[in-house]
Design a protein that fits this description.
The model has no long low-confidence stretch (mean pLDDT 92). This protein is mainly alpha-helical.
Length: 480
């Protein structure tokens, strides 16, 4: 039974890796992939974000992807991104399999074990998170694997654990890798170490955990030297820039416990609301559980920090699946309803490249149909920022509607116009009558009208929906 559910989960992860070529957050591209493209000579240094200049990001994940790119010989950015998603997805799935293998024996009867197995392997948002090329996903995979390795064979009531030296060494190396992916994972690791010492009553042997962890961090320093071209300590510069100098606050600040409404603001709204309730109950009812000791401090620390994003809690996503059985709340009708919603959304994410405001589908069209080059006009409301997966040529000239119309009339127009609408009606006859739609991100007829209705009622943190479109500009003589 366990094997069947894990194989089903693996199949869904692989399908999602193929189809989910967009991103959840832009940092997946500009904090990770863009750095790989630069090292491979596929983009220029000016495309890198300010974090590169400030030396605040670790290079370990970038280095691993770079090695994969070198090994495969691929240089097509979309093909490479797929390989990275697949490898990341397999690593995350492997961590899930270890987690299931470790936690199933802790449950008292077959019904509890089956429930835990179903939640862990079929929770709808996990396959989508598994294939993200983000630091949060790498930290989730590495730390969850470490957690499962060190706690394998533990017994509850009362808790007892005695990992071998080998398991402690492997777990330590994975903890170091999680830290090199995302520094905030240290709060998960501190919770695990505290549990091993206080509840698990490990004393001297805990040192074995730290040696390989520090070795990986030392290796990370060498990798950072390779990446930046000079010796630096990004963990310190990250702390200094974001907490001391307040750089994180530039991206917004939220009150304590804002995650209670930030986390549910997505298509898994009812599922996430239920998980939040179950998490609180699970923490209260299981004060000595290792999931409580690792996830609760991590959650509380992130609530104290002023800048909050839902992705910051993704490293505890696999561990969070245990909240269902830990809470001991059973509402079959509600449970089946939530399972149905979760499954439908999981299938949607597996089959369609959903992402908010990303326009990767548009860039993929430019890559495939326009030879990875885009030279076009854009309307004043167009976001002129450099997009993810920008092509070899990305030359956009943004002008007022009337100026574009005059350029068309004078015969000095570019060949294309980009806009964030598949229904272009500017009210300027000299423009509207000379453009014809070539391609748009609108997934089906009527989606644009539905999006307009949604945008009219959506409030932050919900985001507006936009469908980017490419129009051909026809010269005056060809338009009649």
């Amino acid at each position: 039974m366990t094997r069947a559910y894990l194989l089903l989960s693996l199949a869904i992860v692989c399908i999602t890796a193929v189809m989910s070529y967009a991103y959840f957050h832009i940092d997946e591209n500009f904090q990770i992939l863009e750095w790989v493209w630069w090292k491979l000579g596929l983009t220029e240094k000016w495309t890198l974000p300010w974090e590169h200049t400030e030396r605040i990001r670790p290079w370990m994940q970038v280095f691993l992807y770079y090695c994969i790119a070198k090994a495969t010989g691929l240089r097509d950015t979309f093909k490479l991104a797929f390989v990275f998603r697949l490898v990341t997805g397999l690593a995350s799935w492997g961590a899930l399999a270890l987690f299931v293998k470790t936690t199933l024996p802790w449950l008292s009867d077959d019904r509890e074990r089956l429930l835990h197995l179903r939640v862990a392997t079929l929770l709808g948002f996990l396959p989508y998170l598994f294939v993200r090329t983000s630091s949060e996903t790498m930290a989730m995979a590495a730390f969850t694997a470490a957690w499962a390795v060190v706690l394998h064979g533990a017994t509850p009531k009362p808790w007892s654990v005695s990992p071998s030296v080998g398991r402690l060494a492997i777990a330590g190396a994975l903890i170091g890798l999680a830290f090199e992916a995302r520094y905030q994972s240290a709060f998960l690791s501190l919770g695990l170490v505290a549990w091993l010492v206080v509840v698990g009553r490990m004393r001297a042997r805990i040192v074995v955990l730290f040696v390989p962890a520090l070795a990986v961090v030392a290796l990370g320093a060498l990798v950072d030297r390779w990446g930046y071209g000079e010796w630096t300590f990004p963990a310190w510069t990250y702390l200094k820039a974001n907490l001391v100098e307040g750089a994180a606050a530039m991206f917004g600040s939220e009150p304590p416990f804002a995650y209670l409404w930030l986390l549910p603001a997505n298509i898994f709204f009812p599922v996430v609301v239920a998980l939040i309730v179950l998490a609180i109950v699970a923490w209260v009812r299981n004060p000595r559980h290792p999931v409580t000791w690792t996830t609760l401090p991590f959650f509380l620390v992130h609530n104290v920090l002023s800048h909050k994003e839902e992705r910051f809690l993704f490293p505890m996503a696999i561990l969070a699946t245990a909240f269902v059985t830990m809470s001991r709340i059973r509402r079959p009708v509600i449970g089946w309803a939530l399972a149905g919603w979760s499954t439908v959304m999981m299938v949607l994410l597996a089959l369609w490249p959903i992402g908010w405001h990303h326009h990767v589908r548009f860039q993929r069209y430019v890559h495939d149909a326009q030879n990875d080059e885009l030279r076009a006009f854009a309307l004043p409301e167009y976001d002129l920022g450099l997009p993810a997966f920008h092509g070899r040529a990305y030359d956009i000239e943004k002008l007022p509607h009337e100026d574009i119309a005059r350029r068309i009339e004078a015969g000095h127009a570019r060949s294309f116009l980009v806009a964030d609408t598949p229904r272009l009606h500017t009210g300027v006859a000299g423009l509207d009558s000379h453009v014809s739609l070539v391609w748009s991100e609108e997934p089906f007829a009527g989606a644009y009208e539905l999006a307009q209705r949604y945008d009219a009622i959506a409030k932050p943190p919900l985001r507006p929906l936009r469908f980017r479109a490419l129009y051909r500009i026809d010269p005056p003589a060809a338009s009649h």
